[in-house]
Amino acid sequence: MGTSRLNMKKLYRLVSSDDLEIYNLKESGELLFCKSVNPTKFNLKKIRHLIISAHFTNWDTKRIENIAYKPNSTVNMFASQSIYEKDKVFITLPYKSGNTDYWTQAWAPKNRLSPFLKTISKKIKIYPEALTINGSKKNTYWKSGPLILNSDNHSDFININFQEEFNHSISKNLNGFIFEPSIEFIIFKKKKPIGLIFSIFILLMSIIFIWFHSLNEIILEKNNPPTLYENNISGMKLLEIIQSSIPDGVIQNIKFDQRTDSTTYTFLSNTNALEFFILASEFSDTLSEWEISNEANVVTFKKKRDN
């Protein structure tokens, strides 16, 4: 197991739903038992470091000789051995022993811990007892929930012993055991500062972009005011004047263009278009505001602009 130590004064051990043990923690990692209390009558918000017994957790180990093996931090290595769905359990990060080829990971059903999670601080760190308690120096056994455990030098982790086959003395608590906080549960996911900073940066850039874009539109509109057109179709007035001169069944379509203030007549033949052009040209007084042109089967009337 790891050799790191936490410099803290108190460590709490949740043995069962009605048993919470309190320990003093020496700088060496050695636990000194203080007392047991009922967790339902204890202010759990003051707890910053909590180990939970096998009553609430499960775990397993696996030997992987490939030294290049590095599992994803969110993977559940032993999902096939759990009766719970992925989103129904808390897990620890996969952890490799520094002395052997064994990997381990613990998981805890959320429904077992939920009554306690409602009343604890989000600053708390929760550890699986079976993967953070080292009893090798005491060379003894201890009870964790329904299980009897002891340290295994072969895997560097923990052995499970069955009570019906067991005839050794069992420690009543973890007094004198060593706490090695190398593995903890992922309970409250913390947002990384870099992610928050990046989100704020994107938001600010979006605001700046929108502001400059709006300012640019205002400047362009001021320097280049839009052309205003009369809210009528001049070609309709023209059509009223000369529609009586257009023979039936000779026009293919009529197009009105307000931007150019023009009206285009497309005829079925060049001959029809030429005859209409000659006829319309005779209305020189009535159509004095219009320039008339003919090209192939198209006759165009374009309103003259004032100089």
Description:
The protein has 307 residues and is of the alpha+beta class. It has 3 domains: 10-190, Nucleotidyltransferase, domain 5, CATH 3.30.420; 192-226; 234-303, Gyrase A, domain 2 (2-Layer Sandwich), CATH 3.30.1360. Helix content is 21%, strand content 31%. It has helices at residues 110-117, 129-132, 193-223, 234-242, 270-281; strands spanning 10-16, 19-25, 31-37, 49-52, 58-63, 89-91, 95-96, 102-109, 125-128, 133-134, 141-144, 147-152, 157-161, 170-171, 178-179, 251-257, 262-267, 290-295, 298-303. A 5-stranded mixed sheet has the order 3-2-1-4-9. Strands 5, 6, 7 and 8 form a 4-stranded antiparallel sheet that branches. Strand 11 (141-144) and strand 12 (147-152) form a beta hairpin. The longest helix is centred in the last third of the chain and has 31 residues, at 193-223. The chain starts with 9 loop residues before the first strand and ends with a strand. Residues 228-233 have low confidence and may be disordered.
Strand tally is 19
Beginning-to-end CA distance, first to last residue? 95 Å
Q: Give Rg in angstroms.
A: 43 Å
Number of helices: 5
